[in-house]
């Protein structure tokens, strides 16, 4: 037990250092130029953070899931885009680790991730599915030589150009139904990326997420044996929503910290007179607390349910509603906190070059409600609510 | 019971195939039942069999085949007869 705690502690210390010394000073440049956060990702590689969740027997750091979530929060406080790249990579790693189920190729793959600190991106969204991640058009197709191919039109692939490997949702076979999905892992040498657009968005600019046509040819053993529906319910969806909301909380917390620094500076200028913005800051704190409570309770419920044999609770509709709700609530609350911080800091927050600037925070968190559109999630929830009992 | 289940799936499962062609153990999702349609199947089953599925049973697997649905309904009925 104490070894596990020490491992988490050492990992989080290294994340904190990287976040403060490398991610934070580059955050504005990454944002302004919509460029990949190379320095921070390289530093995370050097700290072996990309394999932090992988079991030690496969060469990883074997930290807890709570530590990964805390790392997303910590990085989010310094650079939202860098935190998002880290979080999305970890979503793929955590998913594979939780669904190894004796898949020899994937075990070996994870030791390569640890050995080479490979960065994994995901190709989940697809043109023509109306944003429904539970359906695919592109399919795993057998070739004459016994290998597999696919061609998928993805509206966005975050850091696709910089990733070593891609994890892609596909239909199981050319004649499979849209909901009969599997996940395939392909490395850079097996993939051709044809860009279909540019990348000049409002926020999360450093994630570098243009659209691509993704074509790949690869051996069949690189298809994860566990069906995608089970992987999605037990891991990919809740893990995504938990890690994303941790980094959104991190961004909102930094915006709040900047607002607090602004109020303190005002208070020091006129000792004895509480600045009028102090009251607004107090209101803002309660908004931030609600976000924090939602994020931390979801993490606790997920880790508890994960420890139960068979993880059956995670497959229930009640669990699906719970983690969908986290996504909706956190993605709406995080930009609200950032906007509140802007209200406190006024013009000093609106300007992009002051210690109290919160424009980037606001823009970055505005991406939250689009990453799997909230209305799409509401549609799912509306249907689930017809049948789920205790929510 | 299986005939009644088949009738519910035929009416509410919106499968691209005739449910009569599916075996008891065929995966309904692989046969094309969407998540949304599965909720309608669950609602109709509750109505037809006059039961309420508790949350622990409301999983994808519990409704993945006619046999699985039949097992879930039998379990509920057995519970109902225990005083």
Mean of residue pLDDT values of chain B: 91
Strand elements of chain A, count: 7
Task: Please indicate the count of domains of chain A.
Answer: 3
Number of individual domains of chain B? 1
Biggest β-sheet strands, sense, barrel of chain B: none
- The CATH homologous superfamily name of chain B equals ACP-like
Secondary-structure element series of chain A: HHHHHEEEEEEEHHHHHH
| Contiguous runs where pLDDT drops below 50 for at least 5 residues of chain B | none
Explain what you see:
The complex is a heterodimer of chains A (391) and B (83). Chain A is α+β, with helices and mostly antiparallel strands and 391 residues long. Chain A folds into three domains: 2-118, Butyryl-Coa Dehydrogenase, subunit A, domain 1; 121-222, Beta Barrel (Butyryl-CoA Dehydrogenase, subunit A, domain 2), CATH 2.40.110.10; 228-384, Up-down Bundle (Butyryl-CoA Dehydrogenase, subunit A, domain 3). Chain A is built from eleven helices and seven strands. In chain A, helix 8 (317-345) packs antiparallel against helix 11 (374-384). Chain A starts with a helix and ends in a 7-residue tail after the last helix. The mean pLDDT of chain A is 96. With 83 residues, chain B is mostly helical. Chain B has one domain: Non-ribosomal Peptide Synthetase Peptidyl Carrier Protein, Chain A (Orthogonal Bundle). Chain B is built from three helices and no strands. Chain B has helices at residues 2-12, 35-49, 66-81. In chain B, helix 1 (2-12) crosses helix 2 (35-49). The longest helix of chain B has 16 residues, at 66-81. Chain B is globular, with a radius of gyration of 12 Å. The mean pLDDT of chain B is 91. The A-B interface holds A 134-135, 176-177, 179-180, 229-230, 233, 312-313, 315-318, 380, 383-384, 386-390 and B 16, 29-36, 39, 42-43, 46, 52-56, 58-61.
């Amino acid at each position: 037990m104490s070894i596990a705690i020490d491992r988490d502690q050492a990992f989080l210390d290294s994340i904190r250092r990287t976040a403060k010394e490398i991610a934070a000073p580059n955050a504005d440049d990454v944002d302004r130029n919509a460029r990949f956060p190379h320095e921070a990702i390289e530093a995370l590689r050097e700290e072996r953070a990309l394999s932090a969740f992988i079991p030690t027997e496969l060469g990883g750091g074997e930290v807890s899931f709570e530590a990964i979530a805390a790392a997303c929060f910590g990085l989010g406080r310094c650079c939202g885009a860098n935190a998002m790249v880290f979080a999305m990579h970890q979503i793929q790693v955590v998913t594979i680790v939780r669904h190894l189920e004796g898949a020899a190729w994937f075990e070996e793959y994870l030791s390569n991730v640890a050995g080479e600190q490979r960065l994994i991106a995901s190709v989940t969204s697809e043109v023509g599915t109306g944003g429904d991640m539970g359906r695919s058009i592109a399919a795993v197709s057998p070739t004459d030589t016994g290998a597999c191919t696919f061609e998928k039109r993805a509206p966005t692939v975050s850091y696709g150009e910089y990733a070593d490997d891609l994890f892609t949702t596909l239909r199981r076979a050319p004649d499979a139904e849209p909901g009969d999905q599997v996940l395939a892992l392909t490395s850079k040498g097996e993939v051709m990326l044809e860009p279909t657009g540019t990348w000049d968005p409002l926020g999360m600019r450093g994630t570098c997420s243009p659209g691509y046509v993704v074509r790949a040819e690869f051996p069949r053993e690189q298809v994860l044996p566990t069906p995608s529906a089970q992987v999605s319910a037990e891991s990919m969806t809740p893990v995504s929503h938990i890690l994303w909301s941790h980094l959104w909380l991190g961004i909102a917390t930094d915006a709040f910290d900047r607002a607090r620094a602004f109020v303190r500076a005002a208070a020091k200028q006129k000792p004895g007179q509480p600045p009028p913005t102090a009251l607004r800051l107090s209101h803002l704190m309660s908004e931030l607390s609600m976000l924090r409570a939602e994020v931390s309770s979801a993490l606790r419920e997920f880790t508890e349910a994960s420890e139960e044999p068979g993880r059956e609770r995670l497959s229930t509709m009640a669990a699906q509603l719970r983690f969908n709700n986290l996504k909706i609530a956190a993605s709406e609350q995080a930009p609200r906190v950032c906007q509140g911080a802007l209200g406190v800091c006024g013009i000093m927050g609106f300007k992009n070059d002051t210690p109290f600037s919160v424009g980037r925070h606001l823009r970055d968190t505005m991406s939250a409600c689009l990453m799997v559109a909230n209305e799409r999630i509401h549609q799912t929830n509306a249907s689930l609510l017809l049948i789920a009992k205790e929510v | 019971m299986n005939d009644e289940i088949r009738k519910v799936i035929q009416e509410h499962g919106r499968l691209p195939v005739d449910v009569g062609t599916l075996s008891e153990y065929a995966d309904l999702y692989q046969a094309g039942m969407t998540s949304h349609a599965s909720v309608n199947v669950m609602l109709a089953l509750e109505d037809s069999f006059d039961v309420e599925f508790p949350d622990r049973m409301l999983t994808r697997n519990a409704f993945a085949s006619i046999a699985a649905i039949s097992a879930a309904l039998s379990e509920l009925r057995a519970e109902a007869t225990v005083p």
